[in-house]
Structure to design on (941 residues):
């Protein structure tokens, strides 16, 4: 450890520089503050603040990689994490295609879009935003019961490696999701909305509350028979489908191991030409980040261009195994999600031209889905997933919303749904991103054939 | 140091209007994740964490704050944050919060009985074990992904509350497994052992991992993954279904365990995880399943991932009957929800997955008790049916009614005999009808306590480690199909 190093940043830099010859490293130092206001039964019930500082340290010794993490950022703590990472590396199998830690030589990025006021949100301010949501739902659905969450905060990430790379990025996020339900009705009914922005001041949380309240059915849902339907998927449902496609089709490990649902389809048409999906962590329409967790500058990567499938994303390991360029999608190596390898996490589906009323009219006869629940993979090679609809499922007849229906289970290929897209809505919404994590910006979609396999009682 | 921090945080939280406070200091919180994937190191990670969590309550609202800064200044900051949140949340709260008054032992120590501390086992030995097992998975070139993994957790915790509870615990948990994925012509088939989700897990030392026999299982796992590529699809239609122990454990988890969490029943998780089809007034009368259905939530069970001395509200671990002879008799509770239900005491199931998270109602070890049939006797009554085992996909609606599960393997049952492999097997149903259709329950020889390391709940998301004991069992007239 270098003498005089005092701050955690200096300690980590000294640790990376001080490794013996033949040993290289990369390190991620993160500091985060998040305030979460959970509400249920129309009152705030679980407010929470988290403050974290965290170091992930990975070493490579002769192609053997090992990782250790710690929250102890004292000199002793940093020294210990280096020892632990080296002890892991010593027992690792050799990664034959490891090409060294990256340094893409791009200009130092820091902020893309960042709100220091959002990160500095006080407990009182966050609580007042939650109260505005509760007031909006109470006005919009008198007698309804409101539940949901508001997440506000941010993270500073600094990545260093033995090539001399030393970059940081600051991210901020404000995200809310709101449910309004009427559990006393038989069957119960509910409505849902969500939204996110990197700046709390630009997140219209009360509007999200009003939308959730407006979507609560006023009549009793009727049963709909399982079967194939044309569906109008609201943005949250679209985001779910695209999130699964992100790792089943565009994830690095699926490409390396041959189980990607896009194996043999890259460069080929998988959707109509007005389907354009890009992963863009530099977009101000997402929760942007200037670098990935290996310090590689992020950039826009077309995943579906005019309906044609693009490449899988990579990190340093998958780029070596695939002999493909880095795309700036590395996760922290110890992250549980790294099991799936690098995955796109800033999805932006290009909006079309159709207004909501046009989408409903053109659907003619089908099902409107607000949101999915508990979606899981049934067959990864065919991109088949299953899940339930919830919180606002409606029957469309003669181009109008005819009334609510009880929730349905779908078992459907994501690629099949994309292939059959007929209309793309014009209004995109940023969703997801709890703690700044995976988010998507999507409009509504109409797809001509969607398979519902069973129904539930409500 | 930890005892000092408890006192610092608790003193800082005792301010005007704060009626209750509790503090958890967790240090160290260690995690080992070693995995070999296709001969490479998928993950070789050693994590060391620690932190302080402070929870306070006014007469109307909670506040919680967690920090990784394990210093007196960090403890005071967390207490101040929690108090500010609780006061702010109190403004709009109309209903007073009540907690149960807890009796029973409220202080002491708990430690996992260990024969071989997993954090003292040489990483060379563990990686050699995994490398050998992973190599054996590659039964043919069709196996495109082989994974052998080991995980271990070690959490040392100090707890103190303003109403007199105090404990210290050290909980160590381990698990390991192998998984092979075979791919051919767009078809993907996975086979795992001992179970899905990374294998099997227990609150135990490394002796548990040695007993799993990963290397000896791996060759069969690889072969079955390849055989599944050529297996016929599961037939479609209503039929008699025999579920193996590990799949039935997950069925218990999804369609009973979550459904009887009282915070879900009361709507506290409505927006995210959902609510429940179970109404509080149904306790004591609801026919949840057939007469052979007996379920106990046992936080005292040896080896259970959901075993502890005290929960994260300082309530002593208990053994709580949930379903007795098919009737719902109990639910999973915290101090707040138990008081709301009118119970004198909490069942002690409030847990947080770390010092930076507020405790929620979590499953402990939710066990379906064994019946009296051998496995052969379960099959013998079946002229034409299917046997399904090892979960592949799982989904259930937000009231825990409509479910659909896929399994890695199936076998046709014809005249009481198991046939060859079936692929892409799916069964589906509605929770009460399904459990009421259970007409035979396997005996102790079919029963196993499965550890599950990844039960998600809450916002921000928390992962609980729980266990489920389950036998094999037989269900009539269940909808199955090949995916």
């Amino acid at each position: 450890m270098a003498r005089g190093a005092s701050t955690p940043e200096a300690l980590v830099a000294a640790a990376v520089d001080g490794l013996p010859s033949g040993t290289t490293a990369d390190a991620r130092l993160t500091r985060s503050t998040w305030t979460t206001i959970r509400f249920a039964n129309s009152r705030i019930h679980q407010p929470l603040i988290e403050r974290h500082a965290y170091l992930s340290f990975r070493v490579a010794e002769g192609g053997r990689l090992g990782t250790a993490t710690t929250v102890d950022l004292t000199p002793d703590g940093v020294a210990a994490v280096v020892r632990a990472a080296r002890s892991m590396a010593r027992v690792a199998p050799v990664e034959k295609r490891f090409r060294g830690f990256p340094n893409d030589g791009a200009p130092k990025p820091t902020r893309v879009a960042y709100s220091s006021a959002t990160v500095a949100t006080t407990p009182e301010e966050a609580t007042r935003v939650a109260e505005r949501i509760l007031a909006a739902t109470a006005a919009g659905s008198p007698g309804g019961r409101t539940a949901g969450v508001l997440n506000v905060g941010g993270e500073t990430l600094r990545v260093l490696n033995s090539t001399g790379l030393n970059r940081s990025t600051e991210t901020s996020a404000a995200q809310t999701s709101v449910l309004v339900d009427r559990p006393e009705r038989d069957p119960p009914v509910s409505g849902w909305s969500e939204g996110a922005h990197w700046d709390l001041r630009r997140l219209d949380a009360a509007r999200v509350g009003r939308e959730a309240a407006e979507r609560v059915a006023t009549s009793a849902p009727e049963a709909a028979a399982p079967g194939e339907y044309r569906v109008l998927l609201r943005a949250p449902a679209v985001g779910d489908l695209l999130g699964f496609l992100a790792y089943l089709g565009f994830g690095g490990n699926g490409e390396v191991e041959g189980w990607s649902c896009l194996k043999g389809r890259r460069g080929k048409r998988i959707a109509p030409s007005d389907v354009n999906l890009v992963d863009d962590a530099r977009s101000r329409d997402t929760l942007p980040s200037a670098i990935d967790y290996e310090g590689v500058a992020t950039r826009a990567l077309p995943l579906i261009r005019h309906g044609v499938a693009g490449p899988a994303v990579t990190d340093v390991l998958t780029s070596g195994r695939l002999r493909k360029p880095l795309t700036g999608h590395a996760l922290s190596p110890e992250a549980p999600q790294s099991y799936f390898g690098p995955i796109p996490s800033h999805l932006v589906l290009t909006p079309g031209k159709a207004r909501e009323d046009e989408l409903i009219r053109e659907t003619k006869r089908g099902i409107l889905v607000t949101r999915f629940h508990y979606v899981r993979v049934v067959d990864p090679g065919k991109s088949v997933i299953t899940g339930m609809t919830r919180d606002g499922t409606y029957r469309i007849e003669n181009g109008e919303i005819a009334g609510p229906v009880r929730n349905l289970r779908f078992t459907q290929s994501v690629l099949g749904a994309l292939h059959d897209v007929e209309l793309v809505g014009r209004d995109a919404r940023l969703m997801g991103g709890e703690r700044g994590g995976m988010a998507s910006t999507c409009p509504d979609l109409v797809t001509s054939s969607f398979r519902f396999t069973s129904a539930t009682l409500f | 140091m930890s005892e000092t921090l408890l006192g610092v945080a608790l003193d800082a939280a005792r301010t005007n209007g704060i009626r209750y406070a509790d503090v958890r200091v967790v240090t160290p919180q260690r995690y080992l994740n070693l995995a070999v994937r296709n001969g490479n190191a998928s993950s070789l990670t050693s994590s060391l964490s620690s932190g302080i969590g402070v929870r306070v309550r006014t007469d109307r609202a909670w506040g919680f704050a967690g920090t990784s800064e394990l210093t007196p200044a960090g403890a005071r900051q967390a207490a101040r944050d929690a108090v500010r949140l609780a006061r702010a949340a109190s403004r709009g709260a109309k209903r007073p919060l009540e907690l149960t008054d807890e009796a029973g032992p409220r202080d002491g120590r708990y430690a996992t009985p260990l024969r071989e501390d997993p954090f003292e086992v040489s990483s060379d030995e563990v990686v050699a074990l995994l490398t050998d097992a992973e190599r054996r998975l590659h039964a043919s070139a069709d196996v495109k992904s082989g994974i052998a993994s080991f995980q271990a957790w070690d959490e040392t915790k100090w707890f103190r509350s303003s109403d007199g509870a105090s404990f210290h615990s050290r909980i160590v948990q381990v698990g390991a497994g192998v998984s092979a994925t075979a791919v051919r012509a767009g078809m993907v088939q996975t086979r795992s052992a001992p179970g899905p989700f990374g294998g099997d897990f227990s609150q135990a030392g490394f002796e548990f991992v040695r007993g799993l026999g990963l290397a000896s299982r791996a060759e069969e796992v690889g072969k079955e993954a390849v055989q599944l590529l050529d297996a016929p699809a599961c037939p479609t239609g209503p039929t008699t279904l025999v579920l193996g122990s590990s799949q039935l454990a997950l069925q218990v988890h999804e369609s009973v365990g979550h459904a009887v969490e009282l915070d879900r029943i009361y709507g506290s998780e409505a927006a995210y995880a959902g609510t429940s089809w179970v109404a509080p007034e149904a306790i004591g009368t609801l026919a949840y399943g057939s007469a052979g259905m007996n379920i106990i939530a046992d936080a005292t069970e040896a080896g259970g991932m959901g075993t502890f001395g005290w929960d994260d509200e300082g309530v002593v671990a208990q053994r709580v009957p949930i379903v007795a002879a098919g009737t719902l008799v109990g639910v999973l509770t915290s101090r707040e929800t138990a008081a709301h239900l009118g119970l004198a005491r909490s069942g002690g199931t409030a847990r947080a997955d770390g010092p930076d998270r507020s405790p929620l109602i979590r499953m402990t070890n939710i066990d379906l008790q064994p019946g009296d049939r051998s496995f052969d006797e379960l099959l013998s009554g079946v002229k034409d049916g299917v046997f399904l085992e090892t979960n592949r996909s799982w989904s259930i609606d937000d009231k825990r009614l409509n479910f659909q599960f896929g399994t890695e393997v199936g076998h046709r049952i014809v005249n009481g005999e198991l046939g060859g492999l079936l692929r892409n097997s799916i069964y589906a149903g509605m929770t009460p009808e399904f459990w009421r259709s259970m007409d035979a329950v396997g005996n102790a020889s079919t029963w196993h306590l499965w550890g599950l390391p990844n039960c998600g709940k809450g916002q921000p998301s928390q992962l609980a480690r729980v266990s489920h004991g389950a036998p094999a069992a037989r269900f009539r007239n269940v909808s199955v199909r090949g995916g």
Chain A touches chain B through 95 residues (CB under 8 Å). The mean pLDDT of chain A is 95.
